[in-house]
Structure formats: C-alpha cells, structure tokens
Amino acid sequence: MTRLSSVLSSLLLSASLLVIAGCDSTADNQQPVELARVRVAEAVMGPAAPSIRTNGLLANEDEIRLSFKVGGVIRRLSVTEGEQVRKGQKLAEIEQAEIDAQVEQASQAYEKARRDLERGDRLYADKVISLEQLQDLRTQLAVNEAALSSAKFNWSYAAIVAPHDGTVLRRLAEERELVQAGAPILVLGAKDKGFVVRAGLADREIVQVKLGDEAQIRLDALPGKTLTGKVTEVSGAADTASGMFGIEVALDPTDLPLKSGLVAKLTIIPSTAKAGERVYVPISAIVEGSGRTARVFVLDQKHARRRDIEVAFIEGESVALHAGLQAGEQVITDGAQYLEDGEEVTLAEPVAANRE
Predict the structure, then answer these.
(1) Beta 36-38 vs 343-347: how paired, if at all?
(2) Residue 301 falls within a domain, yes or no?
C-alpha cells in the first residue's frame, strides 16, 4: 500500500510539472496584440456657405477701342499687338489729302462769307440793301465758320494718339486699308487701370453674389500663384445667348506679368458665407454615408468612437457639417476605413513634408 501511494505521488508530481511546463510554453509563444496606427485631424470652424467657383478671362479693366473720326485710307500704322505705348504717342495716321481739301474748301467758303458781310455792311449803311439781306449775310458767315471748325476738328482726328500709357491688345486693320469713320482700328489696354476677370454665373449663384465680395484668382499660366480681388460689377440681366449672368472681379495690384486673355479660375466668397460658421472636417475622415448622413471616427483618448454626422456641403477637400461634431474634436483620417467602434488605436508619425 505504501508503494502504491509512492507511485501515485510520483505520477501526480510529474503531471503537475508537465502542466506547469505547458503553461509556461503557451505564455512564451503568445504575441502582443498590434494596435491600429491612425492619423487624426482637428475639426475646425469655417464659412457657413460654400464658395462659388467658375472660370473666366483676364482682361484690362479699361480697354479703349481707338478709331479715326473720318473714313479713308490708312497711311501708317506704327504699332503691333502686345507693344507698350506711352500717352501722347502717335499710333496711326490716315491719308490727309482728302481731309486737307475739305479744310481748304471750308476755309475759302468762310473767307468769302466774311468778305460778303463786310460789303453788305457798307451797302446797308448806304441804304442799298435791306436789314433782312444784311442779316442773311451774317447768318451765312456763321454757317461757314461752323463748317470750318468741323473740318478742322476732323483734321485733328486724322491720327490716332494714345490717350494713356498701356498695351496694344488688338490690331484690327492694316496699312493701306480703307476704313469707315468710327471703325475700330486698335484696342488699347490702359496700364494704370489694372486687370479684371470677367465670368458668368448661373441664376442660383448670382443671387448670392454682392458688390465687394472677396475673390481668389488662379491662372493656368502662373501655377502656384493666387491673386485676390473684389466683385465690382454684377449683371442685372442674363445674357440672351448663354443664359449666364455676367460679373466682373477687379484684381488687387500685383507685380506678376499679367496678360489680357489669360484663363482664370475664380473662387468667390459670398457675403452669405460670413453670416455664420460651420464645423469642417477633412473629406478623408468620412468612412461611409447615405444622403446627408455620414459617419466618422472620433479619437477618445486611445479609442476610436464612431459618430454619426449630418453633412451640409463639400468644399474642396473638406466637408462642412450641419451637426454631429464640435470644433476642436479629433477625427481619424488615415486608417479610419478599417476601424471598429471602440477599438484601441495608436497615433502614427506625422507625414514628413517634402523637401526640395
């Protein structure tokens, strides 16, 4: 009996040692759970209404169409498109033989009328002609004097002179070409008046825009550059051809090499956007949505908490919210698509900025 007890004791001891060894082996092989690595962004406040985006064309604010006062053959056209000109510089001339003849004709008619009046004064003094005849001679002199002034005025406009410093934007005629009176010959952009962007807006957009609204302008020709300006003109009626309402945005002064005709991308910040504020989050924080309802994950200490939100509108790479978040809360962006509600997470290192 004693021997059996000893054997059982040995077996129990061996089994215990095997169990302990097995437990130690399991503990040694167990790997620590790796937490999901995420990045976060802060919910911030922004405008209550979305910006208005459209495309337009850059133009000189003051574009002057220059022409001759009288018709004729162009004798000289001394400028080309894109050329810089100074105020008072002669840009074009018309052949003056015909207009010189008109001035001479008017001058001779005036001199004859003046002599006729002098003779009429003497005849009236001698009672040879009546007062009515004398008054007719005075009227004829006044008529001829006016005709001479008109001819001289036309003669003074037989040349086109630059009214301002500026740039020749378009040249609409050539030398030796016959042009009609008032037909545009050159289009001059005044240098000291600055530039504007002209664009068209739809009816649902034009009602939000007011004079003085701020705008940002980007040009394809100058990537990376952002210009600023203000709305200075808002059309009161739609264009019959396009159905769009025209606006004009005056650019703030800049030293950039701007040219009339450049394509501009216009972002207008309507005054209604400043009437209040909304909470904004990055669009990358949205994990799922249906209509105006969506979901994000909010960082609660070390855990990701799913939160329902209500979307107001999308603005570029951000989403404006009606409700669901407060400014300052941390929303998860990178890694949000793979999380479960309440899951413990760890923050990844920030993305390093690119260095040239």
Answers:
(1) parallel
(2) yes
Angstrom CA distances, 109 to 3, 158, 323, stand at 161, 22, 87
Examine residue 222 and state whether it is found in any structural domain, yes or no. Answer: yes
Report residue 349 CA to chain centroid gap: 38
CA–chain centroid gap for 263, Å, is: 9
What is the domain range of residue 136?
Answer: 97-156
First-residue to last-residue Cα distance in the chain: 89
> Strand pairing of 84-85 and 166-171?
antiparallel
Residue 18 lies in a domain: no
Predicted TM-score (pTM) of the model is 0.56
Q: Does residue 198 sit in the same domain as residue 269?
A: yes
Summarised one tens digit per residue, pLDDT across range 245-262 is 999 999 998 888 888 888
Q: Which of 274, 292, 325 is the last residue of a domain?
A: 274
- Per-residue HEC secondary structure of 152-165 comes to HHHHHCCEEECCCC
Nearest partner of 299 among 15, 42, 25, judged by Cα: 42
Assigned domain for 177 exists: no
- Supply 107's token pair: 């001058």
Domain count, the chain: 3
Give long-range contacts, CB 8 A cutoff, 24+ apart: 319-322. Answer: 319/280, 319/281, 319/282, 319/283, 319/285, 319/286, 319/294, 320/46, 320/47, 320/50, 320/278, 320/279, 320/280, 321/278, 321/279, 321/280, 321/281, 322/278, 322/292
Q: How far apart, in whole angstroms, are the C-alpha atoms of residue 282 and residue 298?
A: 13
Hey, CA dihedral for 161, 167, 169, 175, is it positive or negative?
Answer: positive
265 in the same domain as 214: yes
Q: pLDDT (tens digit, 9 = 90+) per residue, 145-181?
A: 999 998 888 888 888 999 888 888 889 999 999 999 8
CATH number at residue 261: 2.40.30.170
